[in-house]
Hints:
There is one protein chain. This protein is an alpha+beta fold. Among the domains are: 90-210, no CATH class; 303-408, Sulfite Reductase Hemoprotein, domain 1 (2-Layer Sandwich), CATH 3.30.413; 414-480, Single Sheet (Rubrerythrin, domain 2), CATH 2.20.28.10. It has 11 helices and 27 strands. The chain has helices at 20-32, 55-64, 97-105, 167-180, 182-185, 193-202, 248-260, 284-293, 302-305, 314-329, 390-408; strands spanning 6-11, 17-19, 37-40, 46-51, 70-71, 80-81, 115-118, 132-136, 142-148, 155-157, 160-163, 208-210, 227-231, 234-239, 246-247, 265-268, 274-279, 307-309, 339-342, 353-357, 363-368, 378-385, 413-416, 419-422, 424-431, 437-438, 473-480. The strands form 6 sheets. Strands 6, 7, 8, 9, 10, 11 and 12 form a 7-stranded mixed beta sheet that branches. A 5-stranded antiparallel beta sheet has the order 5-1-4-3-15. Helix 1 (20-32) packs antiparallel against helix 7 and helix 7 (248-260) packs antiparallel against helix 8.
Amino acid sequence: MQSNSKKQIKLNLPGGVVSAGDFYEILLVAQNANATHIRFGNRQQLYFEIDETELDNLDTELLSAGIEYEVDAAMFPNIVSSYIADGVFNQENWLKEGVYKDIFDLFDYKPLLKINVVDGSQTFAPFFTGNINFISSAVSNYWYLQIRYPKTNILYSWPTLIYSDYIPAIAKVIQNVILANKEQFYDQPEINSQLLHQMVSADSDFVIQQIDQPLKLPEFQLPYYEGFNKQGDKYWLGIYRRDELFSIELLMDMCSLCMQIRIGQLYISPWKSLLIKNIEPAQRPLFGNILNKYKVNIRHASNELNWQVEDLCSQCLQLKQQLVREFEAADQRTYRLSFVIKRSPKSGLYGSVIIRERDNGLFQITHTRDFNPNTKELVIKWESVPKRELSTCLIALCDEFYSRHSHKLPVQAIVVEKGVSVIEQKQVYQCGYCLTMYDDTYGDEQNGVPPGTPFTTLNNYSCPVCESGRDKFKPVQKMMV
């Protein structure tokens, strides 16, 4: 007897946030359809696979629960946000949980273009992977608007700031204008942005504000997003799966525990991981018990966590795993770099280094200008690289990045406001897993280590972020300004 054909089910989780109760209901429906695992996508969406024979029952259950979904399709892209970074990976500013929720609630339609709503002070969620990108400004409740025209790398900076409450409305107008005029704004080599601005503004009245200073993004630095980590006097937990597969039973246990201890929300990251915030110290062992039950490892090396691969692409995932193993064997540093593996030339993924499979089985390697993953300006490094030589080329490119950046650091002095400071080097100790530094100037007072305590005198020390042992720390040189 032939096996049933498989169907891929996609659900959008706007902003990458979902209540524990709603998530549990989704998981229960998936389990009733005999799905066993959940995958997350680069746009913070959710996937699971079922047999075609389960579709009718699935449709009935999802319809009764009021849950919208797509089958083997991605017509409606999820809204990406940096909500997950709030209180964990960002700086203190006006953009808080309530602002995100208010914006999401105002979306009374399903976007057909990709929309990003992102905090300008963080580097965990991508800025420009959407077609319509809102980036928070320093002015409370006002946003920069950056448009990346569909199927292009052409960016247009909107000339005014947009008020929070008008984000869904202006995004809808922009979407309608672009889709109604594809011959001018969609997959075109050249685009008249002034015309788009005129057409969007013609019949619209949005609250705006003049731009006092141009958009300035922070230098990219991917935070370590796995394991138990401090969040003030609480903890947050990040879970990453090497094969991108999250057991439904594992997730149901996590949701049940969250509901039991009144943790309201779970978060999906653009790096295909799960994050749970606001865990009380006394509750941490309860989550540890679930991780033990399902034998979940939360100690992956940083050079495995900074990769983006296309959704549902087994070839891309296998290549990533191969390259990570080869990086590990070479003990390769990849700090401040991120990597993309893709087969589609216009998939919208972002990273410092892009590996794309060509039609002939060879690979093109490019990197972004200055290795900044948030720019779309690409430099072609190698056009046709055999698979067996990929890691050699990538390691050489990593070395080039560090050589460039070390030469950028001035040897004598740099000019700073109201004075000059000299750059010096100091030896500190850095965790090999999450790259946390121990500097004896500051010690680790939160864990009872006073300032001035040499690292060599710490016998039972463990990393305050990922809890790796003292033996995982290595001496490195830190630049002091």
